[in-house]
Design brief:
five-stranded parallel sheet; single chain; Iron complex transporter substrate-binding protein; 328 residues; alpha/beta; ABC_transptr_periplasmic_BD; Rossmann fold
Length: 328
């Protein structure tokens, strides 16, 4: 029996939650504010007036926080904007740069005063787009907390890694009440999942598989990536949890040796169907349990990388891995 689980609900509960909070009003926030920003403290004297964001997951977070109308530019979503969840017209109205990996010059061309991005999610020493270089140009930044591991040791990945981003953005943009309410709701939902599956002894072996549509080495995740955390919270075990990093290249031979029982397939720039077609037709993978049983979980990029969509993905994964724990 072939089992695919994918997509997002037809409605956008997180976005609706943010709009409800906005409609309810909020207390005026005082400035300046200070937030942890990787291994430094960033100080904001006022909310950014011309903010920019890079990549699909961080764009989704800004949308869900109700900040779409403040954005002066978005990059990294060209060709995958249909993956974003928002009310009709919101995504189409976003001012976009076509760059999948913007240069410093491209960012400066829209005259932003703030950029939300991450290491390997936009920031790059090789391309000269770094928080330090932007600071020299008068552009403030906030760095995706998960990505800080690319430049130094951070605390082990946890849902607090995501919550730190949401609370920092809430403080930076003067929507603290909205961010705190969102985090409280996420904590409640995560606790409801872990109450059901946290103590399970039989944890299925799970692999995250991106760029799995060819024989080239696939991209997977070590224990410090958000996707790995979601596997663990959902009652599974990441087969590459011995790698102390986030997203990493692995070999097909090692994947076969570790024999995942479920494979998480990314639906982003490469259609999930293409990856599944390759996985199920490659002779060297025929004996992998997940392939043999056709057990795939399809997640969007925003669901499996840090964003406001992670909790929805967690709930779906837990129900998939342990359906017996969620029966009425």
């Amino acid at each position: 029996m072939r089992r695919f689980l994918r997509g997002v609900p037809p409605f956008a509960p997180v976005f609706a939650f943010a709009l409800a909070l906005q409609a309810g009003g909020a207390l005026a926030q005082s400035y300046p504010v200070e937030v942890a920003n990787c291994f430094e403290t960033a100080r904001f004297a006022a909310a950014p007036k011309r903010p920019m964001v890079h990549d699909t997951n961080m764009t989704q977070t800004m949308l869900d926080l109700g900040l779409a109308d403040r954005l002066v530019a978005v990059s990294g979503i060209e060709g995958v904007e249909h993956r974003l969840v928002a009310p009709p017209g919101v995504v189409a109205a976003l001012p976009r740069l076509p760059d999948r990996a913007p240069t410093l010059e491209a960012v400066l061309s829209v005259n932003p005063d703030f950029l939300f991005a991450g290491w390997s999610y936009g920031f790059s020493e090789a391309r000269g787009l770094t928080p330090a270089r932007l600071a020299e140009m008068g552009v403030a930044t906030y760095t995706l907390r998960e990505s800080c591991i690319r430049i130094g040791p951070r605390e082990p990945i946890g849902m607090d890694t995501l919550y730190a981003d949401l609370l920092a953005l809430g403080a930076i943009f003067g929507v603290t009440e909205r961010a705190e309410a969102m985090v409280a709701e996420f904590r409640r939902r995560v606790a409801a999942v872990t109450e059901r599956v946290g103590a399970v002894a039989d944890r299925p072996r799970v692999m995250y598989c991106d760029q799995c549509h060819t024989d080239a080495a696939p991209l997977s995740v070590g224990r410090e990536g958000m996707t790995s955390l979601l596997m663990e919270l959902a009652g599974g075990r990441n087969i590459f949890d011995d790698i102390p990093d986030s997203y990493v290249r692995v070999s097909w031979e090692e994947m076969v040796r570790r024999d995942p029982q479920w494979i998480i397939v990314s639906a982003h720039r490469i259609p999930a169907e293409d990856a599944i077609r390759h996985l199920t037709s490659a002779p060297q993978l025929a004996d992998v349990e997940a392939v043999r049983k056709r057990q795939f979980i399809v997640l969007t990029y925003a669901e499996q990388t840090p964003s406001t969509r992670n909790v929805e993905a967690l709930e779906r994964m837990a129900r998939t891995l342990h359906p017996e724990r969620f029966t009425p």
